[in-house]
Every structure is written in C-alpha cells, then in structure tokens.
Give the backbone structure.
Amino acid sequence: MQNQNGSLTAGKAIRCKAAVSRNPGEPLVIEEIEVEPPKAWEVRIKILCTSLCHTDVTYWKKSTGPNAIFPRIFGHEAVGVVESIGEHVEEVQEGDLVLPVFRSNCRECRDCKSQKGNGCSVFGNKLNPDMPRDSTSRFRGMNGEVLHHFLSVSSFTEYSVVDVAHVVKISSEIPVDKACLLSCGVSTGIGAAWKVADIEEGSTVAIFGLGAVGLAVAEGARLRGASKIIGVDLNPEKFETGKKFGVTDFINPSTCGEKNVSEVIMEMTDGGVDYCFECVGLASLMEDAFNSSREEGWGKTAILGVEMHGKPLALNTLFLLRGRTVTGCLFGGFKPKSDIPLLAEKYLDKKLNLDGFITHEVSFQDINKAFELLQEGKSLRCIIWMDC
C-alpha cells in the first residue's frame, strides 16, 4: 500500500482502496486503484472521512442520460489532508487540513469577485465527469481502466485529486467528522437561511423536507432568531429531531385531511410565512412552498432541492405581481473559500450545532451500509471513516 509520507509519494502514482460504482443502483465495490499525481493547479488529498449525500444516491441510480456515467467514484462531502500539490498551487501545502467542495471558487473571475452570488464563471457551469481543466481522469483501475470523477470531488477513495478551485483550507482545531459536514449539506442549508433568504429576528419560516439540508436551514433560522419554524415532512419522527435544531411546529401532509399544506400554513401564520425553503426536489413541493409564503408583498421561497424528475415549476403569476419571490441556490449562496472557515469558527465558538447531524458512523469497508441507512430514512449524515 501507499506510503503515508507526502514527501515520498509526491510526483508518483499512489495505489489505494476506492469504493467504485460500476453499474447504476448496484452496491459499490471496494477495489485497489491507482491515483495519478496532481497536475498544475491540482491537489492530491488523503481523505480522512467522508459522508453520503442524497445527490450521490440520485446520480448513483441514474441508468440513462448524459449523467449516467460509469464506472465512477462517487462522494462529494469529505475532509482530508493535502498529500501533495501540483504546479501553481500556493494557497495550500502538504499537511494542511482541507475540504474538497463541489462548488468552485476560483476567486479570479467576475462572478467570484461579485458579492451578488456564489457562481464561478470559469468552472461553475460545467458538470464535468472528470477534472475541470482538461476533462481527463486521475483514477485508473489496476487493469488501466479509466474511472470517472464525480462533482469534481470523488471522496469515496483513500486518495483523490481535486482542482484547487474546489479546495478550502480550514482550521486544524475542528474535529474532522464535524468539518466533513461543512463541505456540502450543512453549509447549503445554513447559507440558504443566512445568505439567500437573509432571515431577520422574529421572522416566520417553513421548511419542506427535514433531511440534513432542511435541518440545517432550521439551524440557520434559529441562530437568526426566527419566531416560528415550521417543519413539513411525512416522517413524524422528524419533529423530535427537528426540535434540536429549532423547529417549533410540525406538519405531516398525510394528516392534513382535505386541506393542502399551504392552506394549513396560511391559517397557522395569518397569511403565510416570511420565508419558505424546499429541500426535497419535487416541483409539486416547490409550488406548495411558494403558495405557503406571505401572500401580500414579501413572501420569499428558496429552492434547494434538485427536481428529481426534471419537471417544470408552475406558478401563479398574479402572486409574483403582488410581490412574492422565488429563487434557487447552490451551496446556500456561500463562497466556499471565504464562508466555510467562518462556519468552522462558529462551531469552535459553540455557536453552531454540528454534532446533531451525525446519526451513524461506519468503516469504509461498510460504505454500502451508509446507502441503506440513507435510503431507509434512518440517517441524517453517516460518517464513513477511511481508516477503520
């Protein structure tokens, strides 16, 4: 196996274990692979732990279309240590604790320099199955077979190569399992509450879907002083979980009788909530969320879920004319390199609840168990330890 000393492995290919997805929907296979050294602007990272996100599961199941690409190494929520760097990489060095993130942040383009959003016009609009600059893979099977990347991260492997635009250096003081959460889901939810909605003290909020992202929205709303945080979910057990993150009220759509959810929320809030968040990825729920927002003047709906069936969103334009708004967001509107370190500081200052998101932990060899737990609705985040 590989030498753990970066100075001895720098510039050389590394053999390591990876969980390879060979066919859609089938269990991942732990295989020995070869990871090439980083090229210019790239960083090779030793993954310490990773976790499973619904996005991984969505793409793992895809059997048709341009994004059904196999064999592939999934995973995009992780933390690791820099093993070696390629030419022109200056912001990190060997030994740094880093997060690989799917949202690029080159810091040089017009979008990265703008405070109006968190896009990156250099890399942000591409869904490349391999490295973003040259569209080639750094992974090979032991027979020379190309193994494809996922969302510019690919963390289901002991070592991965990531473009520096997707790498965030963070404080070594934060526990690595908590840091892992900041590389996708938790940052997305908190950012949606803080950056996209910009919730004020005393606001009312409704969250559709109380998975990890939805609960992160609740945590963000709680920290902003929201007076009412309504959680909407079909799983009644989510209410008790949601209370830990500030959820004050719970609606199970299956128990609303002849009323739809938006009607119930309108009655509970005297005309709708100030802010709605859709965290599932269904056009029908996006419409429900929009219709649950304040009907006169300022109701705002943020779409966090990726519509899983590709259906369009139908809205009553009269509501838009009256002042309601709807917006989408990726990664919560956060700029990874500047905003993630601030979240880490808030956790270290005991102002941010990250511990409650971790419901399970498994070894890398048992990674398929994490898939089972998430699909059964039993876990929020399952930490997958590479060295167990």
